[in-house]
Amino acid sequence: TISILAPDIPVIDQAYSKLSNSITVEWRTVPGATNYMLTAQDGDSFVETIVKNSPGTVTGLKPATLYRITVRSINSGGKSQPSPFRKVKTVLAAPILSVRSPSCDSIAVSWKAVHMAAGFSVSLVRSDGLGRMLKQNTTNTSLIFTNLDPGTLYTIKAYAWNANGMPGDDFTYNQRTSPNAPVDVQVAFNSGALRAVVSWMPTEGALTYSVTASSGLLKLRCNTSSASCTVPSLQCSSEYYVSVTAYNDAGSSEPTDAVSLKTIPCAPVNISIEEDEPGHLLVSWSSVSLGHYYVVFVKSDDGLEVHCNTSYTQCHFQSDCGFTYFISVFAYNKAGQSPLGDVLNYTTAPCCPGDFRAVFISSDTVRVTWAPVRGADLYETRAAGGSGAVLCRDTATACTLSALQCSTPYNITVYSFSEARGSSTSCAPQYVATAPCSPEIKNISKEGLSVISVQWQPNSDKATYVVTARGEAGLWHCTSTRNSCTLMDLPCGSAFSVSAIARSPAGQSLPSYSIPLETAPCCPNDLILTQVTQSVTNISWSVGRGAQTYVTTLESPKGQAKCHTLQTYCLLGCITCGTNYTVSLRAISETGLTSSCTYQGYSSSTCCPSGVKLYRLSNNGIRVFWQASDETIKYNADLHGSKGNFSCTPSWGLSHCDITKIPCGDVYTVVVAPVTDKGPQLTFCPKKIYSVTCSGSSVGTVIYRGKSNAKHI
C-alpha cells in the first residue's frame, strides 16, 4: 500500500490589508498541495478560509485590528503544519456619510467617529464630470460644501486615516443639491370647472413640483413632474394665493412669490320671489362676496325669457296670471359668471274664468259653465246667498250647484285653483235668482158640478201661479197672481191630480204636491124599461163613467121598487100593472160620490083579463069570454092550433068576442091580452089550452085541457 504524506509547510512572502474587513496573503507554492488554509487569529478568536492557490484573502475581519496570519498546505495525505505567522493590521473602516442639501447651493456631510481614525478626507465633484473637484481634510465629523450649482448631482467620497496616515476604506455617496425656485409663474382660471391651471418655467434639477393655493386656513395642493399643474375644487367667492415649490431627492426649493387668484362669485342664495301686487314680481337675494353685479333670468313656461342687470340685490318683473316662471340669479366678477344656483319656479295665481254662464236646469239647481283658463288645476264655484253658501269643486269647466234655496238671490263666483299658488281671489261674481218656491195647496172645494176652487199658500209677490188638473180626460188649467183660482168645466166621472206651480222672471218652480180630485160619476145616457111579466120589469142602462154601482127606483103612490147593483141592468118585482111610476137612478163611484139621475116616467102594462072561457056556438064558431080588469081597455083573443091560428078583437067595453068556422078535432092555445097603442101585444098574459072535439058532425065538444079535464059547451 502506498501512503501519501502531508505536504510541506508553506512560506508567507507578504501579508497586507487593503480593506477594513480583509487581509490578503501571498506565499510560495508547495508541491503536492491541493488547497491552502488561511488563518487570521485575534486572541482567542480566529477566522479560517480555504483557497486553491496564492494569493488568498481572509474576509470577515474587524477593522483596525491586529491579526496573526498563518498558512497551511492541504492534500489527501492531510494538512501541513502552520507557516510562520505574520502580523497584519486591518485598515480603518470607512466613515458612513449622512448627506443633505440644506439649500440649493450647498451640501452638508456628516458621519460618526471611526475607531482608530486620526482624521478624515472628503472630496466632492459633479457627477457629470464638469467643474473641479472640491476636497477637504478634517478631524471633525461634519463639513459643508457651498457655492454649488442648484439642482446638480454631486459625487462625494470620504475616508479616514490612522495616526500613521494610512487611509482606510472609502465611502462614496451621490447627492443632488435642492432645486432653485421656479420662475415666471402663470395662473389660468377655469371658471366653469372651478379650477386653476398653474404653469412656470422648469428649474434645473427639479424632479417634481408642488403648487399650493391658500385661502385662509384652507390649502389646496397639486403635485406634478411637469411644468404645469391643475388645482381643482376651488371654492367660489374666494381669493387664493398661489405659489410653486420645486422638489428633488435633496429637498425643496423656496416657494415662489404668491400670485393672487380671485375665483368667480358663488351662486346667489336666499332667493325670494314675491308678487307684491298682481302682475308684478319682486325677485331678491343675498349679497355675494366678490360679486360685482348680478343678472336675473326669468323664463316663462311658454318659452319667453327676460333678464335684468343690476348691482343691487333685487329686480322687478311684470307677470301674467296662470304662468309658471323659472327664475335663476347669477353673480359676475372679472373671473366670470357664478355657477348655476337654485332655479326657482314661481307660479302666478290662475286667471279668473271667462265666458261665465249660469243656466237653471231646475228650480233649485243651476249649471254653471265657463271657458278654461291658463294655470288652473281645479275650479271652485261658490254660490253665496240665503242662509249660507253652496260649493262645488271640479277639474272640469262646468259645475252643477244643487240644493239652492228657492226664491233666493245668489252671487255666483267661479274661482280657479292651482296646486302651486292657490286660488284667484279677484274674480267678479254674477248675480242670479232662483225660481220661486213650490206652492202648497191648502184646500180644494167644489163650487158646482164641474167647478172646482183651488187655494194655496203664496210664497212670492212676483210669481204667477198655474193650477193644473191632470187626468185621462185631459188637462184643465187656471191661473192667478193671488192665492186661489177656479177650474171650470171638469168632466163628470173623472179622476184628476191637481198641482200648482209658480212662475217668475227667474224661472218656474217645481210643482206642488199633487192633490187627488174625483168628480161625481156621470149619469147613464140611455135607460130602457121592459116589462117582463105583469109584476116584473127589467131596467137596463148605458155605463155611467166613473160609476161603480147603481141604485134604480120605480115609485108610485101604490108603492116603490128598488134595486142596487154593480151591473147595468136590474129586475124590479112587485110592479102593479096599469100604474104610472117615476123613474130615478143614482150612480155611485168607488169612493162614494153620487150623482142623482132622473128620467121620463114609466107606466106599467095594463092588467091581463081573468076568467077566460070558451063557448061553442051553433054556427061552428067559438066565443071567447073573459072578465075585463078595466072596461076602458080593448082586448084581443088569440087561438093557436095545428089547423090554424085564429083571433078576434071585440069592440070597446065588451069582454068577449067570437071566432067563426073553427075546425074541430084540434087543441088550441088561447091567450087574451089587452091591446096597447105603444107596441105589440103583451106576451106574458096567461095561456090556456082547450080541445075542440067532433061528435059525429062538425060540431064538436070544447074540452079545457089546462088541468087535464074537459069542458063541454
UniProtKB/TrEMBL annotation:
Transmembrane stretches, start-end: none
Give the highest taxon in the source lineage: Eukaryota
According to the entry, every stretch annotated as the Fibronectin type-III domain falls at 6-93, 94-180, 181-266, 267-351, 435-522
Name the SUPFAM superfamilies on file: Fibronectin type III (SSF49265)
Q: Which Pfam family, an example, fits this chain?
A: fn3
Which InterPro entries does this chain map to? FN3_dom (IPR003961), FN3_sf (IPR036116), Ig-like_fold (IPR013783)
Q: What is this protein called?
A: FNDC7 protein
Origin species: Urocynchramus pylzowi
Record lineage: Eukaryota, Metazoa, Chordata, Craniata, Vertebrata
